[in-house]
Amino acid sequence: MPTSEEQTIQQCKNCEETFDASFEYCPYCGQETADNLTIGVLFSNTIDNYISIDARFFRSFGTLMVKPGVVARRFVDGKRLKYLHPAQFYLFISVIFFFIFSFTIRKADNKVSAAIKKGMEQEINLDSIPLKQDSLALAEAKKVLKKSQKTIGLTDKEIREIDSVMASEPEVVSLDFGFRREQLDSLIAAGAPLDQKFKAMGMKEDADAFTRRFYTQMLKFYEQRGGGILQALYDTIPVAMFLLLPLFAVLLKVFYWKPAIFAHHLVFSFYFFTFIFTTFCAILLVNKVWEIPSWLEMLITFSFLIYLMIALRNFYKSSWIGAFFKAGIISFLYMLIIVPMAAIGIVTVAFMLY
Fold first, then answer.
1. Residue 329's closest CA among 301, 302, 305, 298?
2. DSSP collapsed to 3 states, 228-248
């Protein structure tokens, strides 16, 4: 028989801490003490949690879209249960964006792959583009030469030589990528070892690991005729965005050194990038049914700067003039320095992981 002390003490099944049996919830982890996991309780808790997240999402979404910088300011000030966590909000919207964008990238990847394949397999005619000779003009030129033969002092032999040059086939040059394609194609068809293929491509025998990796990717790109390269680039972008966002926060820290700690700048950056991704989602969806004009896309892009200016004003409590100049400088530095460097890094990583 249990003692009176054992009857008044129970152990939590979640954290295994002991506490008074009269408690309905564990004072250590918060789990309900009663083990009544019925189907009704299971679905009731699921619905309650969903409605809670859903309400916070729409509250955060509405404030984010119409009041730049306000939701970030309120979250930093302590109203954190009222709004969706900035990192969670950003992750949710970015997943939706890349899901929608994946349908566009698939079509683009097929077109780009087909264009690369066609460009790699076709031969280039040096006289075929704007330098293509017009046959009618050539015939007229021949007539003028023959009529003026005596005047300009040309012999019959010289006239025949000019005719032969004009009638000759235009020069044809094939793309060789810096190596003999015919030799590499024959090695690929014969299933030759990688070292022989690399040698045909011009790789030295004492090449380091990075160079060997580069030639491996070059060979793969050549054999697949560029197929899937755009998809590889797309797969790298989400990871790169998580690196670009903190760099944006670093810029904020440079221009707003005293008003906030770095964690506050991160909160602002999460919400700002969430707004950008939300706008891009809307653009992609609208483009499915109606092609947005270029001038309107430029106007939307310019609105990001206006949004940033207002957000800086509301979040950091700065003056309008300060917010205007800092928004312009931050955007300029970010687009001129950080984004190009990130683009080079994304392309390099995507190619090495292709």
1. 305
2. CHHHHHHHHHHHHHHHHHHHH
| Contacts of residue 279, Cβ cutoff 8 Å, sequence gap at least 6 | 300, 304
Q: 330: closest CA among 260, 255, 267?
A: 255
Check residue 225 and give its pLDDT: 67
Q: Kindly give, in sequence order, each residue whose CB lies less than 8 Å from that of residue 329, ignoring residues fewer than 6 positions away.
A: 255
> What is d(CA 265, CA 315) in angstroms, rounded to the nearest whole number?
10
Q: How far is CA 149 from the centre of its chain?
A: 65
The reported pTM is: 0.64
Residue 274's identity, in one-letter code, is: T
In 3-state terms, what secondary structure has residue 8? coil
* CA–CA dist 316, 284 (Å, integer): 32
pLDDT at 290: 84
**How far apart are the C-alpha atoms of 155 and 141, rounded to whole Å?**
16
Q: How far is CA 158 from the centre of its chain?
A: 61
Angle of the 229-255 helix axis to the 86-121 helix axis, nearest 10: 140
Q: Which amino acid is at 62?
A: G
Other beta carbons within 10 Å of 340:
10
Q: Provide the mean pLDDT of the chain.
A: 76
- CA-to-CA distance for 214 and 352, rounded, in angstroms? 7
* pLDDT above 90 (res 248): yes
Tokens of residue 209, six digits: 């690991």
Provide φ and ψ at 127, rounded to 5°: -100, 15
Separation CA 33–CA 12 (nearest Å): 7
Within the chain, how many helices (H) and strands (E) appear? 15, 4
Please choose, from the candidates 9, 96, 60, the residue with its C-alpha nearest in 3D space to the C-alpha of residue 282: 96
Closest by Cα among 226, 213, 233, 209 to 344 = 233
Q: What amino acid occupies position 155? A: T
DSSP sequence for 81-143: SSS--HHHHHHHHHHHHHHHHHHHHHHHHHHHHHHHHHHHHSPEETTSSTTPPPHHHHHHHHH
Q: Give the CA dihedral 118, 120, 124, 128, nearest 10 degrees.
A: 30
